[in-house]
Design brief:
It contains eight helices and ten strands. The protein is α/β, with parallel strands linked by helices. Strands 1, 2, 3, 4, 5, 6, 7, 8, 9 and 10 form a ten-stranded mixed beta sheet that branches.
């Protein structure tokens, strides 16, 4: 498991995931569309395991979470160097709101298939996209059990790595299999979008 997790995006989803990552004992590097200096307050809030870097440096981590608005996903990915087999967790959602889905026209592809096509050489895993940021910011587990976190991807090894991360930060991973099938279930309009389930361990 990567000791440092890169999170591309410092909005509500990115910060919620960053907090869980540092709580698990790992380091996290963040970036946004502006500059590392603008993330000073967020890094201070997260503590000594967090830092901010330029986008290219964050995207060079062994394990990267993509948590940015959908309209900038493809342009950003096409600007980055090849991934050379590194794992990219797609936490994006092609809609303005999970409860009122307005999916973009993706030409017959699921959103994660489009991410895969735009991130040359990446092993894409879809995860962290079915719950709104306000729920992601809550503790992953309580007396009722651990929140379920779905994942899907075409590379079994990458799915296993992401499953371990999900488990380590406190969620209950549920593997949905292939990227196309699993992404369709998770993205806005799919049956799992916005579904908050718990598993008693």
């Amino acid at each position: 498991m990567a000791a440092t997790i890169g999170i591309v995006g410092s909005g509500a989803v990115g910060r919620a995931l960053a907090a869980h990552v540092v709580a698990s004992g790992r380091n996290v590097v963040l970036c946004n569309s502006r500059s590392p200096a603008t993330l000073e307050s967020a890094v201070d809030d997260l503590g000594p395991r967090a830092s901010a870097l330029e986008t290219s440096a964050v995207a060079a981590a062994d394990l990267v979470v993509l948590a940015i608005p959908w309209h900038v996903v493809v342009p950003l990915l096409e600007q980055l160097p090849p991934w050379h087999g590194r794992t990219l967790i797609d936490a994006t959602a092609p809609a303005s709101h999970l409860r009122l889905p307005q999916p973009h026209d993706l030409g017959g592809l699921t959103s994660s298939e489009l991410v895969q096509a735009s991130a040359a050489g990446a092993r894409v895993v879809k995860a962290f996209c079915t719950l709104p940021a306000s729920v992601l910011a809550l503790p992953p587990a309580n007396a009722a059990g651990r929140r379920v976190m779905f994942l899907s991807g075409d590379d079994a090894e990458a799915r296993a790595v992401v499953s371990v991360l999900i488990d380590d930060i406190g969620y209950a991973p549920v593997d949905l299999g292939s990227l196309a099938a699993g992404s369709a279930l998770q993205q806005p309009g799919g049956p799992l979008a916005g579904l908050d389930l718990r598993r008693a361990d």
